[in-house]
Amino acid sequence: MNDKIRHYTVLVNDAGQYALHPDGTGAPRGWCPAGFTGTEEECARHVDEHWTDTRPPHLRRTAVL
């Protein structure tokens, strides 16, 4: 494994927003680990697969007719 490859942790906040954060540095206030760590590309793919609705929570809860 290349030592220059940086690893990230996927974070999520109370609004259901996702972010990538350097692994091992601790999550900033208001953010929690989402349970996935990997390269930037792997983490971005994970976010794309899991954060499919980027609307704010109040709009996600509203039924679309």
Automatic annotation (TrEMBL):
* InterPro entries reported in the protein's UniProt record: MbtH-like_dom, MbtH-like_sf, MLP_fam
The highest taxon in the source lineage is Bacteria
Leader peptide range in chain numbering:
none
Coiled-coil spans are none
Q: Which SMART domains match?
A: MbtH (SM00923)
Entry's Pfam families? MbtH (PF03621)
Q: Where is the MbtH-like domain?
A: 1-49
Name it: MbtH protein
Organism listed in the record: Streptosporangium lutulentum
